[in-house]
Amino acid sequence: MFPVSIKGVLILPSDEVVLALNDRKEWELPGGRIEIGENSTDCLAREFKEELGIDVEAVNLVDTYLFEVIPDKYVFIVTYSCRLIGQFTPVLSHEHHKIETFPIDDLPNNLPIGYAKSIHRACCGR
């Protein structure tokens, strides 16, 4: 059995995607572990509120895959496209070092390939 992490692709009107820098110095999609009794879309909304201080709504399921976070440690990733509710005024939480936006066609090198694939599927269907 693997832990489950719900991640969100939030693409802003500027065609930039929101990413967070984690402790491994990798950019990642915002989101996190689903809690007992919680559905995946509620988990996503909660995680965005906790990590960025913004409100989102899950729109479509984009991708699922098994991700090797560190050698021999796997997490099952479930990715949704998101819609921003209200203003984009992120507030950095203790969970990340930075929150930034990146053009979809110019993603950072230290973004795991699974996240990059989810971003491209969410924006372009590829």
TrEMBL record:
Keyword list, A-Z: Hydrolase
Cofactor(s) this protein cannot do without: Mg(2+)
InterPro entries: Nudix_hydrolase (IPR020476), NUDIX_hydrolase-like_dom_sf (IPR015797), NUDIX_hydrolase_CS (IPR020084), NUDIX_hydrolase_dom (IPR000086)
One GO MF term attached to the UniProt entry: hydrolase activity
SUPFAM superfamilies noted in UniProt: Nudix
Positions of the Nudix hydrolase domain: 1-124
Record flagged with keyword Hydrolase: yes
Stretches of the chain forming a coiled coil according to its record: none
Family: Belongs to the Nudix hydrolase family.
Name of the molecule in the record: NUDIX hydrolase
Lineage per the UniProt record: Bacteria, Pseudomonadati, Pseudomonadota, Gammaproteobacteria, Oceanospirillales
